[in-house]
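Minutes, methods subgroup
Present: GH (chair), OT, SY

1. OT presented the first of two proteins processed in the latest run. Sequence and structure tokens recorded below as shown on screen.
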Amino acid sequence: MLKKRIVLLLLVVGLLLIIAACGSANETNEPAPEAGEEEASQGGEGETEAAGNGEQMILRYGELNPDDHPITEGAYEFSRLVEEATDGRIKIEIFSASALGSEREQLQSVQAGGLDFFRPNSSALTDFGAEPMGVLALPFIFENREHQWNALNGPAGEEILQSVEEFIGGMKGLTYYDDGARHMFTQGSAVESVEDMSGLKIRVPENAIFMDMISAFNADPTPINYAELYSALQTGIVDGAENTIAGYLTNSFYEVAENFSLTSHVASPGVVVVSEMTWNKLSAEDQAIIEEAAQQSSEFVRTQTEKFEEEALAELEELGATIIQFDDLSSWQAEVSGLYDTYGGDFADLIETIRATE
């Protein structure tokens, strides 16, 4: 009886093994679907192509200023326009207030492909090799804001913007952002004339033309990371700095440097740059969308900056800042005239084109 049960059990196990082997053979020998067959069965050729181009892309944009600065608001507008034009397929995340490092660090990151977009000052790009950009940082090169933007939107501005891609490599210039004119601000003694600059330690961005300009004003140029400027003023490491009206207000520098002198010594714009690695990954259609959004956001920033500055000076006075105005800046201009030979000697034609712009 026991022998019969053992035999029966062996027969059952053998039968199960045979069934399993057949199933495995069917799985192995079944022909694989051709590429695209599964997608085509879900909705047709058109939807297959759309799905192939529909992968979401998240890009990063670095900015030095806080969120309430007009130039940072322009970054958010740029992001919004791109996302809207691509139906959310391309998203651009904004990292403001130097969250991704100093100006130089973020430029290096863009060049290496680690950061997709950044907005440096044009003078910073000069030190990276785009020497024509130095023309925009020459003191008092623009008569006023209208003259500046007529020049930037004309042949001279286009030639200078192209120098980013031509001379630096690893990045491409997309558009200019209106950063407003730059002015001096100090703690303690107010700067009411160029003679008052003598001996002052003035924070500058880490680039040559700004350092030479402050030296020409007989002050001591002191490069400090922008994110560290407030504490440097607070602790007396520097006596003052220079920046735009928006930068002075939104970073609360008036709390530690109460004297704001409207010198308008430089009106160099910001420049939105994109990493070459990022750019080459985009389709021609997406590149066109990015360029159009950049141009539209540039116009947005200009409007925002002009409006902001009109209201900011009155607000600064209410906050306790002393505003010093000048009827004549010719003595300031005379001190820095030599910088045109140092930084503009090779670009005499470009400078003449800017000056001839109406």
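2. SY then presented the second protein from the same run.
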Amino acid sequence: MAVDRLSAVDVIAEGVRDAPPGEMPARLCSVAVKLLPVAGASVSLHSGGMPVRLGASSAEAARLAEVQATLGDGPCLDASEAGAPVLACDLTAGRDARRWPVFAQQATAAGVRAVYSMPLGNEAVTVGTLDLYRTTPGELTARELRLALLVAGAMTLALTALPREEDGSRGDDSWLSGLATEHDEVHQAIGMIMAQLGVDADEALARLRGDAFAHSRTALDVAHDVVAHRRRFEPA
């Protein structure tokens, strides 16, 4: 059944009603699944080339967000860089499968055939992406794309304007700082790898991702181990 803009606003409002600020990303991901012909949704914060997941509608959606972050490849990275929606309508064959070959293989192995990534932010800066996952190939209609952008707008508001959960403050001291702990840990790990190997940040991030991929882990898991001194990178 078609959902118009006013009805969608009502669904969004109901979906986040009484939600603590820290639960807002996951709640809005669930709203996206209700409004759109998708099976899952995730939201990630982007900075320094490394997306860090803030919420997801399901464990499967969370895993696909981690796959993109670990590979450093996928629609969400391109949407963040371009500041525009990136619609991968068929990951099983053709242009989209060739554009992100490793991600496409892992996504289709998980049962996902299409991914639609919406940038979060404004014309000046992209702070993250809302990623929508579908189990069948296909394009979003113009109406569906408008709804996806509407949810992305609500997510942007949540990431930039809501108060911190613990003290109700507003402005620059947003609740996002509380959710960004893992994001900060990734950057701490990158700094430690730079010191261990004597390389720049881009190379350190590449080594972190490569180690995660080689051992079938996520980049975030490896970052945890680096910061906890359970994993040290040695020069070749």
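Chair's summary of item 2: The mean pLDDT is 86.
Next meeting: continue with the remaining queue.
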